[in-house]
Specification:
Blueprint (H helix, E strand, L loop, with lengths): L25 H8 L7 E5 L9 E5 L5 E4 L11 E7 L8 H11 E12 L6 H14 L16 H4 L1 H7 L3 E12 L7 H10 L9 H16 L4 E11 L1
Helix pairs in contact: 3-7, 6-7
Length: about 240
């Protein structure tokens, strides 16, 4: 692997202030549930400037990074004991090809851990925050008729099916809601951009959609409400 752009930016950095009921951040939750892998672990994320076209790879023990095509990762066969896909799968094109490549680079019995945004639950707090936002995202139909803006909505809503179809044994499927306090969102325009880059909101939003999302978020935060961030974590074994 090469290192063309320095250390990879953490795709969930914008969520550092978000906490679940146990007081853990999304990364702490991910680390808590991440199975121990006796060997190299590769992190897969989506570069904000090229979302969908390529993926960013980072070797966790060295921080070395590289960019790769979803159907041609620059990694040897059986070179990774684990893969951690962070908030990128719903936004990646050629997802079937990417899963085939992840199987190729994983060692036998290696683990794939995927963190993705989750569909908002039917609770008053989540509906109050997310229903207006979903209407904003639906202004531009996504691929394959999906209207929530993600390129692969099934990788958000039915990721277990994807893993099983790619011949991974699903070992864990957990959901958590993280609360982002209003105090963490003083600059709502920066937060809007950060939520897109973090993969919580879909990529490729138009300027009009970003302005509308900013207005929705500003009104929500102005009422002193926290922003609920529903996330889902799955573990598959090769």
């Amino acid at each position: 692997m090469t290192d063309p752009a320095g250390p990879a930016a953490n795709t969930v950095e914008v969520l550092a202030d978000a906490r679940n009921r146990s007081g853990r951040s999304p990364l702490e939750w991910l680390a808590e549930l991440l199975p121990a892998s006796p060997g190299p672990v590769i992190e897969v994320s989506a570069p904000p400037a090229e979302v969908g076209a390529r993926v960013r790879l980072r070797l966790l023990d060295t921080g070395e990074t590289a960019l790769g095509e979803p159907d041609a990762l620059p990694l040897p066969e059986n070179s990774a004991a684990g893969v951690r896909a962070v908030m990128c799968l719903p936004s990646v094109e050629r997802l079937d090809e990417l899963f085939a490549e992840l199987r190729r680079v994983l060692r036998p019995a290696g683990t794939l851990v995927a963190l993705v945004p989750s569909r908002p639950a039917l609770s008053v707090a989540q509906l109050r925050a997310w229903w207006p936002l979903e209407r904003v995202f639906a202004q531009r139909p996504g691929r394959n008729g999906c209207r929530n803006g993600f390129r692969n909505a099934s990788a958000r809503d039915h990721l277990g099916w994807y893993l099983a179809a790619a011949d991974f044994a699903v070992m864990m499927d957990r959901r958590q809601v993280f609360q982002l306090p209003a105090s963490a969102a003083r600059d709502t325009r920066a937060l809007v951009s950060g939520l897109v880059k973090a993969g919580v909101w879909p990529p490729g939003l138009t300027a009009a959609q970003l302005d509308a999302a900013h207005s929705v978020l500003s009104r929500h935060i102005a009422c002193g409400r926290q922003l609920p961030i529903p996330l889902r974590l799955l573990v598959g074994r090769r």
